[in-house]
Specification:
Chain lengths: ~120, ~110
Amino acid sequence: QVQLQQSGTELVKPASSVKISCKASGYTFTSNYMHWIRQQPGNGLEWIGWIYPGNGNTKYNQKFDGKATLTADKSSSTAYMQLSSLTSEDSAVYFCAREDYSGDVDWFAYWGQGTLVTVSS
Amino acid sequence: DIQMTQSPASLSASLGETISIECRASEDIYSNLAWYQQKSGKSPQLLIYAANRLQDGVPSRFSGSGSGTQYSLKISGMQPEDEGDYFCLQGSKFPLTFGSGTKLEIK
């Protein structure tokens, strides 16, 4: 069955960087877009961007340009998101989610369990 | 960016009651809309995609409808396990955008 296993909780200092992982199993990793989503405490959800592991192509929400960098390792079926120049505003739960689609419609049936990132000195 | 206006922000329903949650898009999203349920501390679970298609394994009391800019999620007969947060997501245009969420509680 499809599973997305994310790395654990991170406590990081302001101005530093962090790299979160999302290990995929149960399907062909290179065949589906992988998206990343942020959920801030008490706030709603924001879409960060996607990566297509088949060729490494990426697309970002303009809001996260320069903040997030998406990569993927085909050999280990793992997607990564690096967040840089962290501030307290980046404290959130980050999810990876696999895109499924049919024609012009897409959806996320599979999500990782979420990775909590806390930025604090 | 497409704005997704979701209402109500919170809702209290009795067991067996039928409820509806609405999402209005700032422009036509051509039925590229999904509904999710999220329980506290968990990842979102897909309920409905393509506006009205029920995800495998989701109880049939959940249904979605709408087109153009107006969409709704209906729960026909509230159950205790339906408590949680619900939100919509449009996939028609980047950046993908979410509704602000509805907190559903048992009365």
